[in-house]
Amino acid sequence: MRVLVVGGSGLLGREVCRRGVEAGFPVIGTFHSGEIGVPGVDARRLDVTDRAAVRALVAQVRPDAVVGTPYRYEDWAVTADGAAHVALAAAEVGARLVHLSSDALHAGRPVPYLDDEPPTPVHAYGAAKAAAETAVRAIDSGAAVVRTSLILGEGSKQIQLCRDALAGRATLFSDELRCPIDVTDLADAVLELVESSYAGLLNVAGADAVSRVELGLLVAERYGLDPAGLKTTTSAATGVVRPLDVRLDSSRAAGLLRTRLRGVREILAR
C-alpha cells in the first residue's frame, strides 16, 4: 500500500512516516518547512493552502491512502482549507483518507465526549478543526476522522511546555483536563485505520485524564526535575476562553484497534 503523509515533518506525521516504512509501505511525506528526516521516505515540499499544488502532487504520486496531519494553530488556511484540499485530492484518485482532528473542537464539560458528538468550539483553533472535519466528511463519507488529544513523545511541544513551566518560563492550567497519547501509539492506530474500512469519527486518545498541572508533575518525575518551581494558574484567573474538561472516551477505538492506547502515567513512568 502506497501511503502519502501530508504534514510529514510534524511530530505525528514524522512518526507515521517512520512506522509506515518499518511496516514495509512505500511512503511519501510532505513538508512545508523543516525536514522529515526519516530514511526511506520520499520527501516532497507542499503548501496545503495551494489547492492546485495539492491536487497535482496527489495525482502524480497516486497513493492508495492519504494521512492528513497538517495544522497551524492560528492559521485557518492551513488547518481548515488545507484539510479540504487534501480530502478533495484524495477523493479524486480514490485514495483511502485518514484525517487527524482534535479534542480542541469541544467546549469542555464534566462528562467525557463520545466519538460522534458534534463540535462545540469556543476559540478560533477549535473552529478551524471543526470546519476541517465538516469539509472532510462532506467530500469523503468513507474517510476516518481521528479526534485525538495532547501528543507526547521525543520533541513534543507538550513536554517542552511542561519543562518551561517547571523552569518558571510558562504557566500550566490546573483546571484543563485532557487525555494525552504517546505519538507512537497514535501513529500505529492511524496506520491500522489506513488499512481498515472504518468510516466516520473516532476518538483515539490516552487512557488517563490529567490536568495540565498533573502532566507537568509527571514530566518532573520522569526527567528528575524539581517540581517546586512549577507555575500554575486557572482559566478564571486569566480570563482566557479555552476548552477545559475535554476528556475523550476512546472505548470504541480500544475495541476496534490492536494498538493499545496507553495512559500518560504508563508513558511517563521512569
Q: Your description of this structure?
A:
The structure is a single chain. The protein is globular, with a radius of gyration of 18 Å. Strands 3-2-1-4-5-6-11 form a 7-stranded parallel beta sheet, with helices on both faces. Strands 7-10 form a two-stranded parallel sheet. A two-stranded parallel sheet has the order 8-13. With 270 residues, the chain is α/β, with parallel strands linked by helices. The protein has helices spanning 11-22, 51-61, 76-92, 124-139, 157-166, 183-194, 212-223, 235-238, 251-256, 264-267, and strands spanning 3-6, 27-31, 41-45, 65-68, 96-102, 144-148, 151-152, 172-173, 177-178, 181-182, 200-203, 210-211, 232-233. The chain has 10 helices and 13 strands. The N and C termini lie far apart (37 Å). Helix 1 crosses helix 6 (183-194) and helix 5 crosses helix 7.
Write out key terms for the chains shown.
two-stranded parallel sheet, 270 residues, seven-stranded parallel β-sheet, alpha/beta
Summarize the structure.
This protein has 270 residues and is an alpha/beta fold. Helices cover 39% and strands 17% of the residues.
Q: What Rg do the Cα atoms give? A: 18 Å
Going by helix content, strand content and strand pairing, the class is: alpha/beta
Distance between termini?
Answer: 37 Å
Shape: globular
What is the ordering of alpha helices and beta strands?
A: EHEEHEHEHEEHEEEHEEHEHHH
Largest sheet features: 7 strands, parallel
Average pLDDT level: 96
Number of discrete helical segments: 10
Strand order of the largest sheet: 3-2-1-4-5-6-11
Helix % is 25-40%
In terms of per-residue confidence, which ranges show pLDDT below 50 for 5 or more consecutive residues? none
> Which range does the strand content fall in?
15-25%
Number of DSSP strand runs:
13
